[in-house]
Please model this.
Amino acid sequence: MSPRFTLRLGLAGIVLVALLGIGCAAVRNDELVVGEFGSLTGNDATFGISTQRGVEVAMDELTAKKEGKIGGLKVRVVVEDDRGMAEEAATVVQKLINQDRVVAVLGEVASSRSLAGGPICQQAGVPMISPSSTNPEVTKKGDYIFRMCFLDDFQGWVMAKFVAEDLKLKKVAVLKDVKNDYSVGLAGYFTSAFQAMGGTVVLETSYSAGDADFRAALTSIKAKRPEAVIVPGYYTEAGQIARQARELGITVPLIGGDGWESEKLIEIGGEAMNGCFYSNHWALDAPDPRLQEFLKAYREKFKGDPDAIGGLAYDAAQVLFGAMEQLATQDPQAFQGLASSKAGSEARKAACQKVRDIIAATKQYPGVTGSITLDANRDASKPAVVIEIKDGKKIFRTSIAPQNLPS
Amino acid sequence: MSEFLQQLVNGVTWGSVYALIALGYTMVYGILRLINFAHGDIYMLGAFFAYYAARAMGATSNPSPLMALAVLLVAMAGCGAVGMLIERGAYKPVRRSSRLSALITAIGVSLLLENGGVLVFGADPKFFPQIVPVKSLALGAGVTMTNQQLIVLVVSLGLMFLLRVIVLHTRVGRAMRAVSFSHTAAALMGISVDRIITFTFVLGSMLAAAAGVLVALQSPKIEPYMGIMPGLKAFVAAVLGGIGNLPGAVLGGLVMGIAEVMVVGYISPTYRDAIAFVLLIVILLVRPAGILGRNVTEKV
Model:
């Protein structure tokens, strides 16, 4: 190594240290940074937008009640757009953890994207709460991953029970999205539950998200004369499928899962959606005072009705804020580890673990989407609601509770 | 049997859209020996132009056949202009360079249109208004067709017929055929080669725009990346029929549409996108010039 090179290296080192010093000086204002990722744009953009709105309402509440502070630290939510792509979800979660140094992550709606982000949070020891990913695999990725909603095995069973016992139908066809973990999973759970109840699936066929033409698959379905068609996909395709099914003369009801929950569903499907059903996390006309309070705040801010995705995001944010609050009162010293200046330290790691433990112990939390109790697998167990679409409106049809749930 | 006939109807209407896009590929290739990869994105632009035109003209609230026609013409005119701009701005400057440069330019233009589309229109999908109220028509034997499918079929056949008249029976069509034989000889005969090439691009872009509007009419979701897959498949259709050959493009498009629908109906929907490329490989192995293409021996 030549002396000149060494000199340069030394100078570079000094500059670097100086820059770091400036960097540290800038973080005088300690805060609590929470990350959120979702599809703000892309094929299922309303999922991400609803999630963000739910979190915003929770933030507004925190601002109104406690000046936006938990344990003396100001809460800041960093939102990242994954454009509805699993690869992108992994990238933005990396960014949230490595650049923004968040203490916890809220997201995603789509199971395939929660599955992409989850392992990264797990490895970094950052708790992640998915408000509404229903695929069972999501929380199996590690003990730092939670969810606020029911699972697809339960949802599939609910749909099967509704078709078999409420609608009293025996022959159905299934049309699933092969590119979508959620849709494939839900279709499988529905089929096994429905067969166990004595029903038959006369045809199981598929499409790929982004297809524009569903007529070929629908024509095959029509030939089998099912009494209902199960479409466990997302609202964008469900609306188009409904339209094309009606055009081909398929008049039986289409039945979906919570992937249908979007204000756009009826905009896309129009009249074709009438007489269809889907299982969901909530119904807006329930008399729960907490729900009505949330609805009032939401309607005031956004001039419209929230969907269940927004409600679950609100609950997820509340559970997270509650957990941090609890840590601040129980163990103020450990809580300081969450401050933004402690990023990367051992204190941060320990604090994150404590937050994780508190979230894991959530019992009968009165959320706007029902009472939330997290089980040993960090999944919420709660009843599902079946919504009927009538004259372009979503109407509460029935509520189906898990068999082993007390009360 | 009625199921098969229904699938055939689905396949023919879907295939006629591929045929419209494939015609643009084949025309440009016939004249410039250039594969215009941006062609699928022109199709996307057509759908978006129609979307904004329909909203501006109020076709959403009171649909009428005249309004729908006006929307179609606006989209075609808009895309014709964009096609001219692309040819003049991007392809003409590299025309004397190697064919590889032109190909790379085409890919660049395609990326520009897609991501420019995200910038201008937004990445979230838009929903095309129902400018023609849908009606189901029974064709007998349990086969149904919507009036929209019928419109797709009639409009595409009409445009293909019009294109044939232009190419075979007009002066400019004769000039196009001359240019496709030899640029130099055509220029020596007093034909303005540049003008003919621009005209070809405009014509091809207008057909792609029409395809975009027709697809949006029956499958209302439109987004900036919607042109990639149909563009690729229409390109395969053009090769299948014999690239550079106009009836070949129509035939290729129809074969492609029917093959796709039959695969979904009788084998497995998973292979929907695969079938296009299987067809491409088979045709390249068995008959590289395409179904209607002529084998040309190259001078070495």
In short: The mean pLDDT of chain B is 88. DSSP finds eleven helices and four strands in chain B. The interface with chain A takes residues 2-3, 6-7, 10-11, 14, 122-125, 127, 130, 134, 136, 144, 146, 148, 215, 218-221, 223, 226, 229, 260-262, 264-266, 268-270, 272-273 of chain B (CB under 8 Å). The CA atoms of residues 49 and 263 of chain B lie 32 Å apart.
